[in-house]
Amino acid sequence: MVEHNDDGGRPASDGVGGPEAAPPAGGRSGSAPAPPGGDRTGPESAPPGGAGAEEELGATVAALTADDIAPARRRQLLTRLVGQVRGRGLADLFKPRAAVRWMTDAVADVAPHVPIRDLATLRRHFPGLDDEALADRLVRNAARTTAAIGAAGGGVAAVEWAVTPTLLSAPVLLAAETVAVVAVELKLIGELHEVYGAPLPAGGTQRTVAVVQSWASQRGVNPMLPGVGVSAVLGTAARKELRDTLLKRFGRNLTTLGPFLTGAAVASYLNRRATRALGEQLRKDLGRQRRELPGPPPALP
C-alpha cells in the first residue's frame, strides 16, 4: 500500500527511488540509500561491531525515512533494525539511562546517513508549491511516516510476542523505533532549513552536529550565530540536551506497550502528533529567522 497525498491521488513521494539512486553517505540528495544486502531481515545482516555495522545500521534507518514504502516492507526494515540493535549490545536496556546512552550514540551514528534533499531536488519532487505549501507538505509526509513506523512497530511486536510471550523484546523494539522516528525528524529538519533559505552545512561532521542540535533543541539553526557549523563537535552540553530530549521521547514510547497491536494505534498517533508539533515549531522559528536576517546591501548609484 502506498500513501497518497490529497492532490489528485499522486503518491506522497519522498523521492526514494531504490538502490540505484542511493547517494553517498552523508550527502544531500533526493533519494535514500537502500539497505545493503537485499531483503535480509535478521540480526545476521549486520556484523556485531565496527564500521560495517554502523554503515548497515545507517542504511536501514535511512531507508525507513521514506514515506512511499509498503507497510510490509516497513515492518521488514524495522525487524532488521531490531536485529542490528541487538547486535550492538543492549544488556541494560531495561535501565532508562543505559537505553538513552545507547540511543544517543545510535542517533549520532545514524545522522550522517540521513538523506536530506536540497531545495532544487525538493522543487522537482513537489512542483508548483510555494515555500509555505512545500513546508506543509514536508511536515505532513514526515508525520505520516513516523505514524507508519509506530504501526509497523506494533506488527513486529505482535510477531515477537507470539514467539516469545514476554516483554523482553519490548525495550529493544522501542529503542529501534525511537531511533527510526528521530531519523525521519532529522530529515524533516534538514529539508525545512532548505525551504526557509538556511541550508545546513553540506555533509560531514558540521551538518551532522547542526541537524542533531536542531532536533534536540527543537529550534532552527541560526546561520548568523558565530560558530554554527564551524569546528563542529557534539560537546558535553549538546550531548546532554540530546540525551534529555531522547529520554522524554523514549518515556513517551513506553506508554505504547499495549498487548499486541493495541499499542500500535497509540504509537502511531503519538508519533504523528510529535512530528507535526516539531515541524510546526521549526517552521515558526525558521520563518522568524528569515524575517530577521538582514537583506542584501543597496545597489550602488
From TrEMBL:
Residues 1-53 are annotated as: Disordered. Residues 19-32 have a biased composition (Low complexity). This is EcsC protein family protein.
